[in-house]
């Protein structure tokens, strides 16, 4: 089973130390959340893991092997990424977009074969977008586009999925829908999460990043206490457990403090 | 499945249109030959049909075989090359406003041509020294653009564009400086004429070099459709999909500048083809480069064959430089596309 590990990552960007020695790990089908306030470095951390950034110091390893010994194609066969929602202005069909998920499995001049098209259809089926196959990607809503991007990640057939705040700008319906789909896949997931309530609903374990350091790790229910939220996010909150046993975080505006 | 069938239909229609265009265009020209005369000569030359003594020599033979035919083939190749390179440049800089000349290639070519015409640089290159120098200028500046864009960190689309603009300004300044310094009216006119582009210089000898470069270049880019698609998603998405665009972008830039260099070598500067044909084709086929490249190649060829025919007949007894014609046709078409559709790589209506 997939193991992914980041050891003592340090990252300097323009003289500012964004990550100050961060270590996290995930594997065996766990759903790991990374939370933290804006500018805490959680997105930088994930970008180091999915190779868009090179850490100044420290190392990321996949299954015990350093990431830099993998070619980009090899690592794209091990982990897929759904990043923040981007607006793309071009006329690719939904199928073309998902087909791009097959590119790490293809040699430069290899043709797409029946197997690829089958995988594409299966991925679209999983995210409930198969009926949209021939639509132009740019005509879809934001929630639909993110599901297609998720299907593209699924078409990569990886054991690990990295989510870099994929539900940003999405309505709550689509946030839950997307996370539900991901949760049911039983892959190893590392996800940056903006919304603490989403974190409590889906994550098995969470890492909390603040000022470039990991300040807490554990199950959401253990980590997210009233005092801790106040310390990290500087807001007052109340915690409530609903009839399903789910933890909810209720924020209080400053004027009631 | 329906979509796929229609793509194949479009290909067949375009191939047929290209064939018809070739057959029709060869019969049109400034010297009045009958259609019969023209085809007799072509059939004789290609398949040895007919009487060799009557058809294998003479003025009619020379006009058809040494003037019209090479020119037709050159139009086909140049149209194909410019359209395909337009598609590639638009992907490299991730901007639909790009054309084959965008990264300073035009200014590099002009500088080369100006040096040759004004100062006689490159006489060692032989009969087509101007074209040869233009090729060197175009290719040289592309290498310089790639080099400059890599200073202080990896090159990306924006750095390539900025490097292209900067070097282009330097080359234009040098060209103007030389023109100003030499100040020879005849030579200035030659430079101006060269900048307007013409297919009149087509010769069979040159075709042996240009044809393989354009055809192999087009085929090469066709095989690269996956990476080209990823270029439109940007560097970050491409890395997560297993492709580091950095090296590919530079390779594509050098291959297409070699193609454009040979086009400039044979026919000067022909504007707007490489900008507008990819846009027209995207309206038919969408952005997928697997379809975009072959269709652009076909549409570009057909377009330039007919543009060249128009150039030959529009002014009686004289020839309009083809660069002027393509701009006259291209610019309004472009404005129409811009007004009719939301501007971009296709995208929302």
TrEMBL record, chain A:
GO MF terms, alphabetically ordered: ATP binding; ATP hydrolysis activity
Domain ABC transporter as annotated: residue spans: 4-236
Top-level taxon of origin: Bacteria
SUPFAM superfamilies: P-loop containing nucleoside triphosphate hydrolases (SSF52540)
PROSITE patterns: ABC_TRANSPORTER_1, ABC_TRANSPORTER_2
Keywords: ATP-binding, Nucleotide-binding, Transport
Protein name in UniProt: Iron complex transport system ATP-binding protein
Origin species: Murimonas intestini
TrEMBL record, chain B:
Source lineage: Bacteria, Bacillati, Bacillota, Clostridia, Lachnospirales
Gene3D superfamilies: ABC transporter involved in vitamin B12 uptake, BtuC
Keyword check for Membrane: yes
InterPro entries, per the entry: ABC_BtuC-like, ABC_transptr_permease_BtuC
SUPFAM superfamilies per record: ABC transporter involved in vitamin B12 uptake, BtuC
Name of the molecule in the record: Iron complex transport system permease protein
Main location: membrane
Keywords of this entry: Cell membrane, Membrane, Transmembrane, Transmembrane helix, Transport
One GO CC annotation: plasma membrane
Subcellular location as annotated: Cell membrane
CDD domains in UniProt: TM_ABC_iron-siderophores_like
Pfam families: FecCD (PF01032)
GO biological process: siderophore-iron import into cell
Family (UniProt): Belongs to the binding-protein-dependent transport system permease family. FecCD subfamily.
Membrane topology: Multi-pass membrane protein
């Amino acid at each position: 089973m997939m193991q992914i590990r980041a050891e003592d990552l340090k990252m300097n960007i323009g003289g500012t130390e964004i990550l100050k020695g961060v270590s996290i790990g995930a594997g065996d089908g766990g759903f790991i959340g990374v939370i933290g306030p804006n500018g805490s470095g959680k997105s930088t951390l994930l970008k180091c893991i999915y190779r868009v950034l090179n850490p100044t110091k420290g190392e990321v390893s996949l299954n015990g092997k350093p990431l830099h010994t993998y070619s980009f194609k090899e690592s794209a066969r091990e982990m897929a990424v759904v990043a923040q929602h981007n607006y793309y202005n071009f006329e690719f069909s939904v199928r073309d977009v998902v087909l791009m998920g097959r590119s790490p499995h293809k040699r430069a001049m290899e043709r797409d074969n029946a197997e690829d098209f089958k995988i594409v259809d299966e991925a679209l089926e999983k995210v409930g977008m198969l009926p949209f196959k021939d639509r132009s990607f740019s005509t879809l809503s934001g929630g639909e586009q993110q599901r297609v991007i998720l299907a593209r990640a699924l078409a990569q057939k990886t054991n690990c999925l990295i989510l870099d705040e994929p539900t940003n700008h999405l309505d709550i319906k689509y946030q839950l829908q997307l996370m539900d789909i991901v949760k049911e896949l039983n892959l190893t997931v590392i996800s940056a999460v903006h919304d603490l309530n989403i974190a409590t609903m889906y994550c098995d374990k969470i890492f909390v990043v603040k000022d470039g350091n990991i300040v807490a790790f554990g199950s959401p229910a253990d980590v997210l206490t009233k005092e801790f939220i106040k310390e990290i996010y500087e807001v007052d909150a109340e915690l409530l457990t609903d009839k399903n046993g789910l933890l909810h975080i209720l924020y209080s505006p400053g004027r009631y403090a | 499945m329906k979509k796929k069938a229609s793509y194949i239909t479009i290909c067949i229609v375009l191939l047929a249109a290209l064939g018809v265009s070739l057959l029709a265009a060869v019969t049109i020209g400034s010297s009045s030959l009958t259609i019969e005369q023209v085809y007799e000569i072509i059939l004789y030359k290609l398949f040895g049909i007919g009487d060799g003594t009557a058809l294998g020599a003479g003025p009619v033979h020379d006009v058809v075989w040494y003037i019209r035919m090479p020119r037709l083939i050159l139009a086909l190749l140049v149209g194909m090359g410019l359209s395909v390179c337009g598609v590639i440049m638009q992907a490299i800089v991730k901007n639909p406003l790009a054309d084959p000349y965008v990264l300073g290639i035009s200014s590099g070519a002009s500088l080369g041509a100006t040096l040759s015409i004004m100062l006689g640089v490159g006489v060692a290159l032989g009969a087509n020294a101007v074209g040869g120098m233009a090729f060197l200028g175009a290719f040289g500046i592309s290498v310089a653009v790639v080099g400059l864009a890599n200073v202080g960190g990896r090159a990306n689309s924006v750095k390539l564009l900025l490097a292209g603009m900067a070097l282009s300004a330097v080359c234009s300044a040098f060209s103007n400086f030389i023109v100003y310094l030499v100040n020879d009216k005849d030579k200035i006119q030659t430079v101006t004429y060269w900048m307007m582009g013409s297919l009149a210089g087509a010769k069979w000898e040159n075709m042996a070099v240009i044809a393989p470069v354009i055809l192999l270049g087009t085929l090469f880019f066709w095989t690269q459709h996956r990476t080209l698609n990823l270029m439109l998603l940007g560097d970050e998405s491409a890395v997560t999909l297993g492709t580091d665009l950095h090296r590919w972008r530079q390779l594509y830039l050098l291959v297409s500048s070699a193609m454009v260099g040979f086009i400039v070598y044979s026919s000067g500067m022909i504007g707007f083809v490489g900008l507008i044909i990819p846009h027209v084709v995207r309206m038919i086929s969408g952005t997928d480069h697997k379809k975009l490249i072959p269709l652009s190649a076909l549409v570009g060829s057909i377009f330039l064959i007919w543009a060249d025919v128009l150039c030959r007949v529009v002014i009686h007894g004289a020839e309009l430089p083809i660069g002027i014609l393509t701009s006259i046709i291209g610019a309004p078409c472009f404005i129409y596309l811009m007004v009719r559709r939301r501007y971009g790589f296709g995208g929302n209506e």
